[in-house]
UniProtKB/TrEMBL annotation:
Family the UniProt entry places it in: Belongs to the glycosyl hydrolase 130 family.
Designated name of the protein: Glycosidase
Species in which this protein is naturally found: Novosphingobium guangzhouense
UniProt xrefs under InterPro entries: Glyco_hydro_beta-prop_sf, Mannoside_phosphorylase
SUPFAM superfamilies, per database record: Arabinanase/levansucrase/invertase (SSF75005)
Length: 378
């Protein structure tokens, strides 16, 4: 489906790496692999704020028989530094431009071709114009469990607090970390709130019976089969958890949103934008992945959840809400490294429409105005 307002608002060309947290640390040239997957919220002044993931990569990662990656390491009193690690090229599988797999360990081990940090970008109330880049408020690795980067912010406003979940990457763990803010611009690290490989944690924008609720997406290498003829397909699904304080989370005993056996387009799935409350229930946007080549085809779908029991799906649709739009990225063709990917990460209510923020092609930030009529029951 095409929308009247649907465009890229932030691209790699907009990022000033002289103001990057990595600037001056490495004796090697870097570039912006992608500026994408923006968390989105409304600021007290009415403007929007996109928390953009900047993936900063080495311009020439391969040299002298090795492939290199960037890592942050703690320092003594200097706040840490960024260093380069070198891996023998014969031990690496470099088929995926976003990462490389290391052979010979007996299990799957990977390293990244970039290090990600988060840049707050203030946008106009409609999300279509850049107001300011807040480099002085960038969020970069500051702990050992973030040494390979901080990724994919999702922002929820609950009461008078902004809560932001991020994915922190390291050899220690692949964890979900929580930040909080009173104004949507100045963020304080709170805690690790979910442990290994639970990437897509989205906190509901409001309490249910006095409790915080969240969608989660645990990953693994093994899934048990549903019975023959089941309407569900085994694989990653969107689960639920609740908490009294947004710090300590307990998984909910009923399943959330599961992949349907009737379509391979959602054979892999995960959360997208934090659920927001509407007159009919909680509106949640999520991603489904159809297997295709190395990365797959990412699309955005939606479901409506019961306002008192979010494990109950009132309405959903197999037709995608958003698909990758090659026309948007055509001016950036020389920067493209993946295709068929739209990854929605934020939503803000703007009256008759929603402002929906997505990452397009793991490259740029896409803003789409989606009419509320798109979600109404026929």
């Amino acid at each position: 489906m095409r929308y009247a307002i649907d465009r890229l608002v932030i691209t790699p060309h907009d990022i000033d790496l002289l103001r990057s947290p990595l600037s001056g640390h490495l004796d090697a040239e870097t570039y912006v692999l992608g500026a994408f997957n923006p968390g989105l919220t409304s600021l007290p002044n009415g403007n929007l704020m996109a928390m953009v993931r900047v993936a900063e990569a080495l311009r020439h990662p391969i040299g002298k028989g090795h492939i290199h990656s960037i890592r942050w390491e703690a320092g003594s009193g200097d706040g840490g530094r960024y260093v380069l690690d070198a891996w023998p090229l014969e031990h690496a599988d470099v088929a995926d431009p976003r990462k490389f797999m290391l052979r010979g360990g007996g299990w799957r081990v990977m390293a990244l071709t970039s290090l990600s940090w988060l840049l707050p970008v203030e946008l106009s109330p409609d999300g279509l114009q850049i107001v300011a880049f807040h480099y002085d408020r960038a969020i970069a690795p500051a702990h050992d469990f973030q040494c390979y980067g901080v990724e994919d912010a999702r922002i929820s406003r609950v009461g008078d607090r902004y809560l932001m979940t991020t994915c922190s990457v390291s050899p220690e763990r692949h964890s979900t970390t929580l930040y909080s803010s009173r104004n949507g611009l100045d963020w304080r690290f709170e805690a690790i709130v979910l442990d290994h490989q639970n990437k897509d944690m989205l906190i509901f924008e409001g309490l249910i019976d006095g409790q915080y609720w969240a969608q989660t997406r645990p990953l693994g290498d093994l899934y048990f089969a549903y019975p023959p003829g089941s309407e569900w397909r085994a694989g990653p699904s969107i689960n639920l958890a609740h908490s009294p304080d947004a710090l300590f989370w307990k998984p909910w005993h009923r399943p959330g949103i599961r992949p349907h056996a009737a379509t391979i387009a959602t054979s892999r799935m995960g959360g997208g934008a934090p659920p927001i409350l509407t007159d009919e229930g909680w509106l949640t946007l999520w991603h489904g992945v159809e297997p295709h080549e190395i990365v797959g085809i990412y699309r955005t779908y939606w479901s409506l959840l019961d306002r008192d029991d979010p494990s109950s799906v009132i309405r959903t649709e197999h037709k995608p809400l958003l698909e990758a739009n090659p026309e948007l990225t055509r001016p950036l063709e020389d920067l493209m490294y993946v295709r068929d990917v739209v990854f929605t990460t934020g939503i803000v209510d703007r009256g008759e429409h929603y402002v929906v923020a997505s990452g397009e092609a793991d490259l740029a930030c896409r803003i789409t105005h989606v009419p509320k009529s798109r979600f109404r029951s026929s």
